[in-house]
Amino acid sequence: MPKKKRREVLETLTLDQLNFLKKHWVFLTPKIGWRVWNDSDATLYVLQSEGWQSVSSLGKATGQHDFYGSKGLDFYVEEIDHIVIAGAHNDTALIIPGKSTVLAITGRVLTTLGGSHSWKLGVAGGDDRYGNKIGYQEDSTVIGVSSSPVTYYADTPVKLTAVSGQFSSGKIRLKLYAMKFALPEVDPD
Q1: Residues 51 and 81 in one domain
Q2: Total count of domains within the chain
């Protein structure tokens, strides 16, 4: 088959069809940074210079957050539910990883907040960086987009601050969207 016609045919095939051309498997040599999902152990693996490693063993995706990307630029997403405790502010378990750039933090009130009738979403030194005067009722939401990407050089907890009065109870779901950057791989010997 001429190259042009073969290319046209290949562009119309599904992934399964591409992998099983002419009744035989096509094997590819993987490159550093390629990722593969293993259904048998429900794990994402990435090829590093020392071989295939699960993303969780690299200190990255565990629990409810994931890394998306390749070639050293990863889009990081983490979601948590925070039980609001009494006080003027709450440091949450949602931690912005050091050396990452935050694109946005979003939130939804799951259980009406007791005490304060509005709140702020931010970090120490910028308690309203991602939202101010956010509603306290169930299903109130916030989409706190960084006005320009903000980089954090140390792990930084996300903070909730009562606007007037103090919190007494409630539950909030928060989601962090950030970018992380990786060093270049070392060439294998």
Answers
A1: no
A2: 2
- Domain with 90, as residue range(s), is 74-181
Helix (H, G, I), strand (E, B) or coil at 22: helix
Same domain, 14 and 99: no
In a domain, 118, yes or no: yes
Q: Is 72 left (phi over 0), alpha (psi -120 to 50) or beta?
A: left
Instruction: Give the model confidence (pLDDT) of 89-104 as tens digits.
Output: 999 999 999 999 999 9
pLDDT tens across 26-73, in order? Answer: 667 787 777 788 777 777 788 777 788 877 544 443 333 445 555 567
User: Are 85 and 163 part of one and the same domain?
Assistant: yes
Triad 174, 176, 164: Cα angle to 5°:
45
Query: Token pair of 32, please?
Result: 């550093």
Q: Say if residue 160 is exposed, middle or buried (CB neighbours under 10 Å; 0-12, 13-18, 19+).
A: buried
Does some domain include residue 100?
yes
Cα–Cα distance between 158 and 181 in angstroms, integer? 21
104 in a structural domain? yes
| Cβ 156 vs Cβ 126: under 8 Å | no
Instruction: Decide: residue 185, CB within 10 A, 0-12 exposed, 13-18 middle, 19+ buried.
Output: middle
